[in-house]
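Checklist before submission:
- one chain only
- standard amino acids only
- sequence pasted in full

Submission:
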Amino acid sequence: MDAGRLPVFVYGTLRPGEANHGLLLGRTAAETPAVLPGALLYEGPGYPYAVDDPGGGEIRGELIDPLPEVYEAVLADLDRLEEYVPGAPGNLYDRLAREVRVAAGHVRPAWVYLAGTATARALRADGVPVRGGDWRRRRLPGAPG
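Returned file contents:
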């Protein structure tokens, strides 16, 4: 998978209508519903964490295509928000290339912020999964689970 100028899969507070989406306003070329297969979503302190799940879980979110002229700035802003420093041990999140599914089952490579190693280990042991893998629907009465 080419890890160049990839779109970004967002699943929590960066989704349209959520608290941190304003960081992206006016700087996206497209926002497309998408699913990240092979991952589980966990509750966090006001924001979620995604963790790899070889057992077949999936997370619902959006694929964000930043405008080409501000791509580096958008990615830098997201890295700061997610407390990600390339190559640093102990990152809160790690930005990794993964494949996501969009409409009609098409697959696209994307950057995804997954919980850092220590956080992922703790979540697997004691974390609270977001039922249905959809951060937005966790607050709705009758949300699937």
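Reviewer check: The CA atoms of residues 97 and 111 lie 5 Å apart.
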